[in-house]
Design a protein that fits this description.
The protein has 406 residues and is of the alpha/beta class. It has 16 helices and 13 strands. The protein folds into two domains: 2-205 and 384-404, Glycogen Phosphorylase B (Rossmann fold); 208-382, Glycogen Phosphorylase B (Rossmann fold, 3-Layer(aba) Sandwich). Helices cover 48% and strands 16% of the residues. This is Colanic acid biosynthesis glycosyltransferase WcaL.
């Protein structure tokens, strides 16, 4: 079975879960054609990401002339399908925040994707995120390409479902995937009732072998790590408020922020304003080995997000046998159990976040270790990359079998 992965920007440092899924599918016997619209503008610090980049075909690098020729060729060979796809693109563009012209560009990209799928014998397309990559897959299918499915993660898809024509994408897909039961519930809000049975849950996966021998919790004062893009939805500024409130009562308390993003400057100013330069470290983006090192050096992961899907960093921290402090939103409570594997607090509540850190600092090391081990057992049972990729492959095989039935 040959599958095309239709992606917007790939690979990205924060999207290692896609790479793991693709490679697990390949180990399971599927062939995967990687079709991305563009390369990452961010430096790829992980060698595995650089390997993925070398295996990826970039649609926009073929040039506007090639894309227009692809669309013209589709129009000549399949005028009815092309006209229907054009109407879909215009309708989606009018509903969107980016306009009709951008969707006409997506249509040209879709023509090239459909041609690549035909040339390479692709049986099915799968996109990640219900944004423009899925728009391209939907239009490629409308132009005569293979059927498509897509994985939604949140929160972007749930912030603007009408502008993304999410309901249309769901109803036209062979099936759709959510990464949590919460995510599935949100998709059901926008899909026709007849589509609900085609909305599946496939978790993002971790590679257990990468966490085969977790490092024991370190000694000394509490060390926390936060991992993720520095953006408004991740809530890292609240961490600086909590650190400022706790700094005097908990000497030695330390926070490491792994990542980068548009709020880096605001975070640096807040750290300086509160005199926390010795208590907070910013590392920038790290490769997977670097992330594992930071988890090993910490007692716990702390994630004060305002909006999420089901974060990979929570899974990785739990696999590393680290307790988690996170917010009670989206799919997080499906994985983190308060009092058993960590703490959950209301999103945006700086005082509750501060109190949870203080409570963790007062928790005996043996109890934190037990929490970490409980979390490790839970995530390994629910989020094995091989198991989840096999589940996705089975869904794809099922719809391909129906398509091939005379």
């Amino acid at each position: 079975m040959k599958i095309a992965y239709v992606l917007n920007t790939y690979p990205l440092p924060s999207h290692s879960f896609i790479r793991r899924e693709v490679r697990a599918l390949e180990r399971g016997g599927s062939q995967v054609l990687r079709l991305a619209m563009r390369r990452s503008a961010l430096p790829l610090v992980d060698a595995q990401d650089r390997e993925e980049e070398a295996q990826t075909q970039y649609v926009l690098e073929r040039g506007a002339g090639r894309l227009l020729l692809a669309l013209a060729g589709r129009a000549l060979r399949h005028p009815g399908r092309t006209w229907a796809a054009l109407r879909q693109a215009i309708r989606a563009g009018r509903a969107s925040q980016v306009g009709v012209l951008r969707h006409l560009i997506y249509l040209a990209e879709a023509a090239e994707v459909a041609n690549r799928c035909a040339a390479e014998g692709v049986a099915h397309m799968h996109a990640h995120f219900g944004t423009n990559a899925t728009t391209v897959a939907m239009l490629a299918h409308a132009l005569g390409g293979p059927g498509y499915s897509f994985t939604t993660h949140g929160p972007e898809e749930f912030d603007a479902p009408a502008a993304l024509s999410l309901g249309d994408k769901l109803d036209r897909s062979a099936f759709a995937v959510a990464i949590s039961q919460f995510g599935r519930s949100q998709l059901c809000r926008w899909a026709a009732f007849e589509t609900w049975e085609r909305i599946k849950v496939v978790h993002c996966g971790i590679e257990p072998g990468a966490f085969a021998d977790p490092t024991p919790l370190p000694g000394g004062p509490l060390r926390l790590v936060n991992i993720g893009r520095f953006s408004e939805q991740k809530g890292q500024v609240l961490l600086i408020e909590a650190m400022a409130a706790l700094h005097a009562a908990h000497p030695g308390l330390h926070l490491t922020l792994v990542g980068d993003g548009e709020l880096r400057g605001a975070l640096e100013r807040a750290i300086a304003a509160h005199g926390l330069d010795d208590a907070v470290t910013l590392t920038g983006w790290l490769d997977e080995a670097g992330v594992r090192r930071e988890l090993a050096a910490a007692h716990a992961l702390i994630l004060p997000s305002f909006a999420e899907g089901l974060p990979m960093v929570v899974m990785e921290a739990m696999a590393a046998a680290r307790p988690v402090i996170a917010t009670y939103i989206a799919g997080i409570p499906e994985l983190v159990r308060p009092g058993e594997t960590g703490w959950l607090v209301p999103a945006g509540d700086a005082q509750a976040l501060t109190d949870s850190v203080a409570e963790m600092a007062a928790t005996p090391p043996a109890a934190l270790t037990a929490m970490g081990q409980a979390g490790r057992a839970r995530v390994l049972a629910r989020h094995d990359a091989e198991t989840e990729a096999a589940r996705l492959a089975a869904h794809i095989a099922a719809v391909c079998a129906v398509t091939e039935t005379p």
